[in-house]
Amino acid sequence: MKQIQQALVYSMLIVWTHGIVAVLHGLAHVGMSVWLSLFGDAFVTLVIGLAPFLALLLLRSRWQKSGALLLTLSMLGALIFGLWSHFIAPGTDNVAQMQPDNWYYPFLITSILLAILETTGVAIGLWCLSALSRSQYRTT
C-alpha cells in the first residue's frame, strides 16, 4: 500500500511539472512562430495536455489501473511525438533547423526537459501499474 501511495505522489509531481514545462514550451512555439498542423494541435491538446491530468483523476478513483495505463500511454505518446518533431523529422519544429533568436534557447531547453519528463512519466506510469497489480494479488 505504501508503494502505491508513493507512486501516486510521483505521478502527481510528474504530471504537474510536465504541464508547466509544456506551457512554457508552447510559449516558445509562439515566440518563434512555430505552428503545428491541425493534427499536431489536436494531439498536443488531447494527448499531451489533457490526458495526463485525466490520468491523475483516474488514479484517485476506483479506476486506478486505467489511470496508470493512461498516464503511461499519454507520456509515451508525448515522448514519441516530441522526439520525432523536435529532434528527428526535418521542419520548422526541429531544434537543429531553427534560426537562433531570443526564443531559441527556451525552445531547446524545454524540448529537452519535456523528453526527460516524458521518459520519467512513462517509468512512473509503469511503476503505478506494477504496484497496483501487486496490490491486487495481495488482497485476493
Task: Characterise this structure.
The protein is mainly alpha-helical. The protein has one domain. The protein is about 80% helix and about 0% strand. It contains four helices and no strands. It has helices at about 1-30, 40-60, 65-90, 105-140. Helix 2 runs antiparallel to helix 3 (about 65-90) and helix 3 (about 65-90) packs antiparallel against helix 4 (about 105-140). It is elongated. The chain starts with a helix and ends with a helix.
Secondary structure elements and pairings:
Elements lengths: L1 H30 L6 H22 L4 H25 L15 H36 L1
Helix pairs in contact: 1-2, 1-4, 2-3, 3-4
Q: State the domain count.
A: 1
Could you state the order of secondary-structure elements as H and E? Answer: HHHH
Low-confidence stretches: none
Terminal-residue CA separation: 14 Å
What is this entry, summarized?
81% of the residues lie in helices and 0% in strands. The chain is an all-alpha fold.
Descriptive labels:
elongated; mainly alpha; 140 residues; single chain; 81% helix; 4 helices
